[in-house]
Amino acid sequence: MDQKKITIAIDAMGGDDAPYKCLKGIEIFISNRKNIEIIILGDENIINDTLVKSKINLNNYKIINCINNIQNDDTANIILRNRKDSSINKGLEIVKNINNSGFVSSGNTAAIMILSRLNLGMIEGIHRPAICSLIPNKKNYSLMLDLGANVSSDPQNLFQFALMGYCYHTIFKPDLEPKIGIINIGTENNKGKEFLQKSADLIKESFLNKYFYGFLEPDKLTSGECDIMVSDGYTGNIILKTAEGMSKYITGNLKHVFVKSFLNKIAYSILEKDLKIFRDKINPANYDGAILLGVNGISIKSHGRSTPYAFSCAIERCYEFIKNDINYRIKNEINNN
């Protein structure tokens, strides 16, 4: 697949500071890439004006004009009614119709999920999609899913989330046997809701048993004890947003502490290198690009407040999923289990 042309469709109108951050993110990503076609979707006049005014240099791209773009506060009914000419819908149509392609957007999460399912359908055998992203930990990073695609899930859903997370893991850490944990309020077998216990039983009965860590309490999420952390979407989304808020709190307060006095500024100059490493490790921009696993195509959600650099990371993630054909891996595992 490395030699084949890869197509990445990008919604230029979604999220804060669009289209600038999207176009700048493309420039960062594409600078040393070959054999990649970028299709930019959105208001053509605004996109071209931004390219000129911001002196953004792109090559091997084309623009598809979209006149009816979805807003962040649009309801499901509005999304379905206005989807036809939206940048999200047209981008997902490209993924449906072109091999070796993927889609990236910072836009309305509900719209991306709804239109991904409508345009791409589900992988045969997968019952529910799951949002999966990278979470920093003490060692490196872990995968966590579901982060909000489903309000409720049953044991079979969580088993399939674990299986899809395993397939994701084989792409980014192919030489490491993963540890899979189910997020719960305790580690004992009888703790938590019944559907979590049944999910654990399904994992133990499958080939994933050799990788199964057991139940994982939330205070261990960043310990690095588990490489794949499985949750229902409601719980996962709350954990994700709490973690984002805590990251901002820590980095914001660290900055305040080190400008408090002259001695603190000296301390900062001594610790600056190590503090930068720490800040980069917990910086959400480095982990941007959550994938909607389970749909029959590559659909990536970038954070609505992502920076150009973060958006380029989301495109990079999309590229890796296409290149390594993650959905082929999922289909293969579903057929064998």
Report on this model:
- By secondary structure, this protein is an alpha/beta fold.
- The chain folds into two domains: 1-126 and 294-325, Isopropylmalate Dehydrogenase (3-Layer(aba) Sandwich); 127-288, Isopropylmalate Dehydrogenase (3-Layer(aba) Sandwich), CATH 3.40.718.10.
- It is 46% helix and 16% strand.
- It has eleven helices and eleven strands.
- It has helices spanning 20-30, 44-53, 76-82, 87-97, 109-120, 155-172, 194-204, 233-258, 262-282, 308-323, 326-336, and strands spanning 6-11, 36-42, 61-65, 101-105, 130-136, 141-145, 180-183, 212-216, 228-230, 290-293, 298-301.
- Strands 3-2-1-4-11-10-5-6-9-7-8 form an eleven-stranded mixed β-sheet, with helices on both faces.
- Helix 6 (155-172) crosses helix 7 and helix 8 packs antiparallel against helix 9 (262-282).
- It is globular.
- The two termini are 26 Å apart.
- The mean pLDDT is 90.
Topology:
Elements lengths: L5 E6 L8 H11 L5 E7 L1 H10 L7 E5 L10 H7 L4 H11 L3 E5 L3 H12 L9 E7 L4 E5 L9 H18 L7 E4 L10 H11 L7 E5 L11 E3 L2 H26 L3 H21 L7 E4 L4 E4 L6 H16 L2 H11 L1
Parallel strand pairs: 1-2, 1-4, 2-3, 4-11, 6-9, 7-8, 7-9
Antiparallel strand pairs: 5-6, 5-10, 10-11
Helix pairs in contact: 1-10, 4-5, 6-7, 6-11, 8-9
Low-confidence stretches: none
Question: Structural class, from secondary structure content?
Answer: alpha/beta
What can be said about the biggest beta sheet? 11 strands, mixed
The residue-averaged pLDDT reads 90
Number of strands: 11
- Give the C-level CATH assignment of the largest domain: Alpha Beta
CATH topology of the largest domain: Isopropylmalate Dehydrogenase
